[in-house]
Known about the structure:
about 325 residues
Amino acid sequence: MSADVTIDPTGLGKVAVLMGGHSAEREVSLMSGTGVLEALRRRGVDAHAFDPSQRDLGDLKREGYARAFITLHGRFGEDGTVQGALELMGIPYTGPGVLASSVAMDKVMTKRIWRAEGLSTPDWRQVASAEDTVAAFQALGAPMVVKPAREGSSLGLTKVTDAAQCAEAYRLAARHDPEVLCEQFVGGDEVTCPVLGTGANARALPVIHIVAPGGNYDYEHKYFTDDTQYIVPCDLPAGEEAAIQALVLKAFRTLGCRGWARADVMVDAKTRRPYLLEINTSPGMTGHSLVPMSARAVGIDYETLCLQVLASAALDNPLPDAAARA
C-alpha cells in the first residue's frame, strides 16, 4: 500500500462525508461517518458531514463539494442509488461504481455471478413464501441461513435447524426485504478480508478470523459488545490465508469493484475450502469495524486509511468538466 505522503489534503477540495441516510443501518452509518469525518479533519481535509435523509443531494453541487466519502450502509447508499446521483452531478465518490454497488447489494445476483465465474459460494434458494422456505430447507438441509437478500449487518437473519422454524424465519427476513435468500450453512471458521485499490493495483489486506460467542456474529456482537474476538494476523495456516485473499480479490474484480470493499467468507471445517458469503462495498468504519483493524496489521492507521480511500474517489464516466474538477 502506498503511503499517504504524496496525498495533499488541501488538494482534495471540499469533501462531503455522506452518513446516516434512510436504511436500517442508519445508526451504524452515523458512527462510521463521525469517525471518518474527524479523521479527515485531523489530516487537514476540508470535510463536512452530510446526511442525505436530512438534506437534498443537490446541495452537494450547489455548495461546491469536490468529492464525497460514502459511509452510508445498506439501501439508499450502498446500492448504486447515491452513486448514480453523484455520477450525474460529476462529484467523484469513494468505493465501487453504480453497477458494482447495485449488484453487490443484492446477495442473490452476487452469488449468481460468482457461481457463473466458478467462484465458491454456498448453495442457495431464493424464496417468496414460508412454504418456499420449507422447500428450500428440505433441499439445502440443516442448518440453513434465512436472510434478506438486500440488507446488511446480519439484520433479519435466522439460522434454521428445524423445518418448524422456517415460517418465522421467512417473516423476519421479509420484514426487511421482500427478496429473501435461503443459504446452505457452512460450519467452520468465519473470516473477513478487505481489499484496497482498483484493477491490477487492488490488494487484499490481512484476513481477520472472527470468533463470536456461540458462533453468533449478529448485529449486537458486530457493533455494540466487546465479546467477539478478532484475530489478526489470523491464526489460519499461511496457505489458507493466501487462498482466501486470492478468492476475495477475484470476487472483487469479478463484480467490477474499485476503491475498497470487504468480503465475508466461511472456511469449511472439514474440507478447509473457503466459501464467499457476500461483499460489502461501503465497509464500516466504527470502533468495532474490520477494515481499519486489518489495515493496522500492515501499518496503515485509521487516519491514513481514510485519506487513502478518499484520494481514490472516482467516477464511472467522468464528464470533461468533472474530470477537470477532480
